[in-house]
Design goal:
The protein is of the alpha+beta class. The chain is 38% helix and 19% strand. It is built from 11 helices and 14 strands. The strands form 5 sheets. A 6-stranded antiparallel β-sheet has the order 5-6-7-8-10-9. A two-stranded antiparallel sheet has the order 1-2.
Length: 357
């Protein structure tokens, strides 16, 4: 038997709770969330599976949705209420803000990004500190990451992968010209804007590249894409970033990381000792030209990789041109067959003729 008094009391109690109307970034619906949520606290969207966040004001910025989290901080989609534009804001992890090395890493990222001017690197608008909270204000790339693209489709088209590789390699080359290494290239650090332009983010691990960098105390980077020389604790050069970018492209092409194992330790050992299976041996439709470029950029011996980003970009561009020619060759015969006119039927009667011209 239904206790109507209890149900009525529950409804009244629900109605008496404060509610906050927010817009879901995923489905676009306007949804009420519990008003007692703390700023940045999340709850599920009642219309889809997205996580909705209680907005928070940071000076004149309204943080609306969590975009990504990394070792140095968390990135949020926000509105600049003064300039009336959407931006991305990265809040530094509180525990790192109390650490001298963490502070230096934060400011290093700000300085690194500020001096880089490239279409495929996220623009930095400003950085500062508010109520002991360090933050970066950056260009918003709101069309998702390469990581999400892989999750959604398993594999990414070869042409798109080559385009991403060419553009991100060019971005890394600009960094290198400023003596900067990225040190954490992975699918999650390549975002897309609404024009489908790839954008490299998260220079939180960036460092000077002069004469190689020796970090014998710590190994930075994502294990699935990390260069073997970093694991051997050898001085880092741009060739480690090249290896990681090639590993990222490998993942996008094949749907698999270059080396897979149940334990991270085994993945690390594979980077050191296991021969790479070329992408076209994983998926036969991948062109051998593209496969060879990626395999060379992931050679375990740095000296056997491309010795400049220009050389790497030229190889990727050549593979792209070859792929386009191959696709055109496949399309043209079919197109000719569709466009070929049927033979004209001419009545065979005495006194009839066809006029030429």
């Amino acid at each position: 038997m239904i206790d109507f008094f209890a149900v009525s009391s529950e409804v009244k109690e629900t109605q008496s709770k404060p509610l906050k109307l927010v817009n879901c970034f995923k489905c676009g619906a306007n949804v009420f969330i519990p008003g007692e949520l703390q700023p940045l606290e999340t709850t599920g969207c009642s219309k889809c599976d997205a996580e909705l966040m209680m907005p928070m004001m940071l000076e004149h910025f309204e943080l609306k949705a969590k975009v990504a989290a990394g070792g140095m901080g968390t990135v949020y989609k926000a509105s600049d209420t003064v300039l009336q534009r959407d931006v991305a804001i990265k809040l530094m992890q509180p525990e790192l803000a109390e650490d001298e090395e963490g502070l230096e890493s934060f400011y290093a990222e700000a300085r690194a990004v500020a001096q880089l001017n490239h279409t495929n690197i996220i623009n930095l608008y400003q950085f500062g500190k508010y109520n002991d909270q360090l933050y970066l204000v950056m260009e918003l790339a709101s069309a998702g990451s390469l990581d999400r693209l892989i999750d959604a489709h398993q594999t990414v088209s070869e042409l798109l992968v080559l385009d991403v590789g060419i553009k991100i390699a060019s971005a890394l080359d600009i960094g290198l010209k400023h003596d900067l290494l990225h040190r954490d290239i992975k699918p999650g650090n390549i975002l897309f804007n609404m024009d489908s332009e790839p954008k490299l983010i998260d220079f939180g691990l960036a460092c000077k590249s002069e004469a190689g960098v020796d970090y014998s105390e710590q190994i930075w980077g994502t294990p699935y894409y990390i260069a073997p020389e970093k694991l051997r604790r050898e001085p880092e050069t741009f060739l480690a970033d090249m290896y990681s970018l090639a590993g990222t492209l490998y993942h996008a092409l094949t749907g698999h990381t270059p080396f897979e194992a149940p334990q991270i330790d085994d993945v690390v050992l594979a980077h050191l000792n296991t021969p790479l299976t070329p992408p076209h041996r994983v998926i036969s439709s991948i062109s051998e030209a593209t496969s060879e470029v990626i395999a060379r950029a992931m050679d375990k011996v740095p000296a056997s990789r491309y010795q400049s980003y220009d050389e790497f970009i030229m190889a990727l561009t050549a593979a792209r041109s070859q792929l386009l020619r191959s696709q055109l060759t496949q399309v043209q015969p079919a197109r000719r067959a569709r466009l070929q006119p049927a033979a004209e039927e001419v009545p065979k009667k005495k006194g009839w003729f066809r006029r030429k011209g």
